[in-house]
């Protein structure tokens, strides 16, 4: 997968929140084979006090995709993105503008506006968005070169709520890297996203809150790989054999 | 500061130990050392509110903690309950109650799967345990063997016991303390020791103290939530501690508005009468944590460092203090010890 000129071999991106410990996080990242991890600046690192944790994340030796989780306005998101660029020395930013506190559903209006501002400042924006086709187009217009629609609300683990919408996005933007971000609870969900032709999957809670995060990280890695291979293999179409397609009169009877 | 070093020169029979830090780690270690016959001096910084222990929940909840912590926490933490019961009369063994809002019942199932030694409660059983919560929660989990205490009172009690054993406790900085006369130094400074232990990081916690005489709870209540699990611990006299946030930050700013809202929301979700509570205190401090979120011991010459209690100070300090004492005084621990110290994962 090529995003903003960077070639990624792993199609699994991992969040770094909610693990039982940084040691478990580090092991899970290794087991997942992920080359990119996301990290929150706002919740975790109030006023720069997050250095300890950020250093642990840097020490993972993978690419860091800082995010603006917890930002509710364009202004907060833009400020947090600028801070992230300083802290992690990267133009990458996973842009989240939260519109609703309970579901953490994106405010797509604020998202497009913040994406425009940040792209103009040279950021390489990874927008966390809904599966809305028109919003996706607006984000591309704003300068985004990758889209990260949700499968379901953050942390819900519900899987892909609307496969039709995700299929539609894939069909409309065949050349844009598409990452299903949020909602994945099980490896089967991750595989389904990849079977739809998505380029990658970003998840956090499904691994972090599993009883054995390291094992689940491994499971997710394999599911992502399986789903991708299946997509590339051009799977068969499901057939409806419940209704016979031709009359069954004159069935040959052999013997007896 | 006046330590009686001139009066009783140290002998091999009564080793002299300097404990740095008077949070739960330092005072429990000092207590264990004094009980084993060491002559103990404790030095600490002046401000009790600078200690993470001052803001602790005081739950002795090894089985609940197992939901998200290493199994070692439950295994080592169990012994803390009789340890505190034997030394602090305010240790209440009334169990813990775990509840979730109707929407988050799935969290209760997860919690039950990850933990042991609990009983499933229906609405009537919840009401029987905590009458003030009647009709508010369809089901819950009860951990009957767990206990709780008021951390500030418990640490004051330990300080009194130490004084009764002729241990000295005084204010001072480790750097300014005279180097001579002590056989051992035990560094229990918590996050303040980070410059000497680079893998230590701070995990910020925020808490509230509320007075709400309208509500009576006999035991700590944990309220599960997918993102913000919180707990409420009764302190007696209508006072409740509501805690605690977990933020990967060593920031020492006062409680944020967001944290206060989350904590107050939790109290309100438990019982609407908390809307009328007085806010007695809002506090924040820094938990010292190592990469695996488990405590550890590290020896550097004459100095033994005990740190990384994370959110388990009152729960794990007794077991770790026994181990420290065994290392310093050369006698076998009387309690189950943690596995032999090994390099921490992720630590340089």
UniProtKB/TrEMBL annotation, chain A:
Provide the residue positions that the database annotates as binding 1-deoxy-D-xylulose 5-phosphate: 155, 182-183, 204-205
Per the UniProt entry, the Enzyme Commission number(s) are 2.8.1.10
> What keywords appear on the UniProt entry?
Cytoplasm, Schiff base, Thiamine biosynthesis, Transferase
Q: Which InterPro entries match?
A: Aldolase_TIM, Thiazole_synthase_ThiG, ThiG
Where does the protein end up? Cytoplasm
Annotated Thiazole synthase ThiG domain ranges read 3-247
This entry carries the following GO cellular component terms, namely:
cytoplasm
Quote the pathway field: Cofactor biosynthesis; thiamine diphosphate biosynthesis
According to its UniProt entry, one GO biological process term is:
thiamine diphosphate biosynthetic process
Q: Does the keyword Plastid apply?
A: no
Q: Which CDD domains does the UniProt entry name for this protein? A: ThiG
Q: Does the keyword Transferase apply?
A: yes
User: Per the record, what are the reactions this protein catalyses?
Assistant: [ThiS sulfur-carrier protein]-C-terminal-Gly-aminoethanethioate + 2-iminoacetate + 1-deoxy-D-xylulose 5-phosphate = [ThiS sulfur-carrier protein]-C-terminal Gly-Gly + 2-[(2R,5Z)-2-carboxy-4-methylthiazol-5(2H)-ylidene]ethyl phosphate + 2 H2O + H(+)
Question: Which GO molecular function entries does the Swiss-Prot or TrEMBL record give?
Answer: thiazole synthase activity
Residues annotated as catalytic = 94
Q: What quaternary structure, including any partners, is listed in this protein's UniProt entry?
A: Homotetramer. Forms heterodimers with either ThiH or ThiS.
Q: Which HAMAP family match?
A: ThiG
Q: What does this protein do?
A: Catalyzes the rearrangement of 1-deoxy-D-xylulose 5-phosphate (DXP) to produce the thiazole phosphate moiety of thiamine. Sulfur is provided by the thiocarboxylate moiety of the carrier protein ThiS. In vitro, sulfur can be provided by H(2)S.
- Family to which the UniProt record says this protein belongs: Belongs to the ThiG family.
Instruction: Spell out the protein name for this chain.
Output: Thiazole synthase
Per the UniProt entry, what species is this protein from, by scientific name? Teichococcus oryzae
What gene makes this protein? Answer: thiG
TrEMBL record, chain B:
**Top-rank taxon:** Bacteria
Question: Cofactor(s) for this protein?
Answer: FAD
Tell me where the transmembrane regions lie. Answer: none
User: What processes does the entry annotate via GO biological process terms?
Assistant: D-amino acid metabolic process
GO function terms (MF aspect): D-amino-acid oxidase activity; FAD binding
Q: Per the record's keyword annotation, is Oxidoreductase included, yes or no?
A: yes
Keyword Membrane listed: no
Q: Which residues form the FAD dependent oxidoreductase domain?
A: 16-327
**UniProt EC number:** 1.4.3.3
Q: Which InterPro entries match?
A: DAO, FAD-dep_OxRdtase, FAD/NAD-bd_sf
Q: What catalytic activity is recorded?
A: a D-alpha-amino acid + O2 + H2O = a 2-oxocarboxylate + H2O2 + NH4(+)
Keywords, comma-separated and alphabetical: FAD, Flavoprotein, Oxidoreductase
Q: Which family does it belong to?
A: Belongs to the DAMOX/DASOX family.
UniProt cross-references to PANTHER family, sorted A to Z: D-AMINO ACID OXIDASE, D-ASPARTATE OXIDASE
The entry's protein name is D-amino-acid oxidase
Q: What species is given as this protein's source?
A: Teichococcus oryzae
**What lineage, starting at the top, does this entry show?**
Bacteria, Pseudomonadati, Pseudomonadota, Alphaproteobacteria, Acetobacterales
């Amino acid at each position: 997968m090529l995003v903003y000129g960077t070639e990624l071999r792993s199609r699994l991106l991992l969040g770094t929140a909610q693990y039982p410990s940084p040691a478990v996080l580090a092991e899970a990242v290794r087991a997942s084979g992920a080359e990119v991890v996301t990290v929150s600046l706002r919740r975790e690192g109030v006023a720069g006090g997050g250095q300890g944790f950020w250093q642990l994340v840097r020490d993972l030796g993978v690419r860091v995709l800082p995010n603006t989780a917890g930002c509710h306005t364009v202004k907060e998101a833009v400020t947090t993105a600028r801070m992230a660029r300083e802290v992690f020395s990267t133009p990458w930013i996973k842009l989240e503008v939260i519109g609703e506190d309970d579901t953490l559903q994106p405010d797509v209006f604020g998202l497009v506006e913040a994406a425009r501002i940040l792209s103009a400042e040279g950021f390489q924006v990874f927008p966390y968005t809904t599966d809305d086709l028109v919003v996706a187009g607006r984000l591309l217009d704003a300068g985004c070169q990758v889209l990260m629609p949700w499968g379901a609300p953050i942390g819900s683990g519900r899987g892909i709520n609307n496969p039709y919408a995700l299929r539609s996005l894939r069909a409309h933007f065949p050349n844009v890297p598409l990452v299903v971000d949020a909602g994945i609870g099980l490896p089967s969900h991750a595989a389904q996203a990849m079977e739809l032709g998505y380029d990658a999957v970003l998840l956090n809670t499904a691994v972090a809150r599993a009883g054995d995060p390291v094992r689940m990280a491994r499971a997710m890695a394999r599911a992502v790989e399986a789903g991708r291979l299946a997509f590339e293999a051009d799977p068969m179409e499901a057939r409806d054999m419940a209704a016979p397609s031709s009359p069954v009169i004159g069935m040959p009877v052999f013997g007896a | 500061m006046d330590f009686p070093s001139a009066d009783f020169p140290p002998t091999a029979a009564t080793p002299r130990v300097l404990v740095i830090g008077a949070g739960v780690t330092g005072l429990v270690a000092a207590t264990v050392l004094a009980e084993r016959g060491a002559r103990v001096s404790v030095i600490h910084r002046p401000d009790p509110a600078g200690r993470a222990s001052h803001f602790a929940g005081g739950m002795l909840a090894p089985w609940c903690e197992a939901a998200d912590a290493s199994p070692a926490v439950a295994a080592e933490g169990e012994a803390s309950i009789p340890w505190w019961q034997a030394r602090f009369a305010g240790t209440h063994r009334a169990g813990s109650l775990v509840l979730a809002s109707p929407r988050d019942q799935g969290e209760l199932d997860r919690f039950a799967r990850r933990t042991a030694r609990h009983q499933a409660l229906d609405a009537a059983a919840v009401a029987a345990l905590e009458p003030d919560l009647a009709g508010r929660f369809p089901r819950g989990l009860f951990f009957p063997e767990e206990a709780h205490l008021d951390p500030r009172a418990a640490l004051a009690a330990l300080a009194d016991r130490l004084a009764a054993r002729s241990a000295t406790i005084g204010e001072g900085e480790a750097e300014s303390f005279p180097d001579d006369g002590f056989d051992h130094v035990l560094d229990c400074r918590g996050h303040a020791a980070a410059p000497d232990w680079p893998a230590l990081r701070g995990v910020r916690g925020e808490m509230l103290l509320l007075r709400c005489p309208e509500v009576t709870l006999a035991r700590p209540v944990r309220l599960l939530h997918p993102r913000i699990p919180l707990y409420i611990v009764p302190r007696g006299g209508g006072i409740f501690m509501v805690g605690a946030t977990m933020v990967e930050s060593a920031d020492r700013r006062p409680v944020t508005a967001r944290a206060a809202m989350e904590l107050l929301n939790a109290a309100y979700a438990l019982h609407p009468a908390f809307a009328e509570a007085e806010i007695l205190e809002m506090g924040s401090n820094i938990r010292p944590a190592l990469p695996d979120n488990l405590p550890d011991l590290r020896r550097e010459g004459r100095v033994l460092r005990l740190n990384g209690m994370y959110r388990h100070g009152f729960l794990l300090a007794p077991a770790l203090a026994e181990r420290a004492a065994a290392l310093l005084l050369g006698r076998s621990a009387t309690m189950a010890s943690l596995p032999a110290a090994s390099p921490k994962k992720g630590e340089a």
